[in-house]
Design brief:
With about 70 residues, this protein is mostly helical. The chain has a domain of about 30 residues. About 55% of the residues lie in helices and about 10% in strands. It contains 3 helices and 2 strands. Strands 1-2 form a two-stranded antiparallel sheet. Strand 1 and strand 2 form a beta hairpin. The chain is elongated, with a radius of gyration of 14 Å. The protein starts with 5 loop residues before the first helix and ends in an 11-residue tail after the last helix. About 10% of the residues are buried.
Amino acid sequence: MKDKTFEGKFGGKNKMKFFETIACIEVLKRGYGKIENGYVVPKNGKDVEFNAIVFSVLKKNNALPEKNSEL
């Protein structure tokens, strides 16, 4: 029987990548980031807000990497 969790269906690394994408969309929506060379980066002076949004989205969805895991 297949596991019905996100990790069971798609794998743990894919879960983190998925929610990183969601976090980038949230950062852009709130105006704390910009797209530069294909990456979402913080706007000048908005580093704290940028990092807080990314961390909160990953933590809320239980997508933070394990402390001893390799990325």
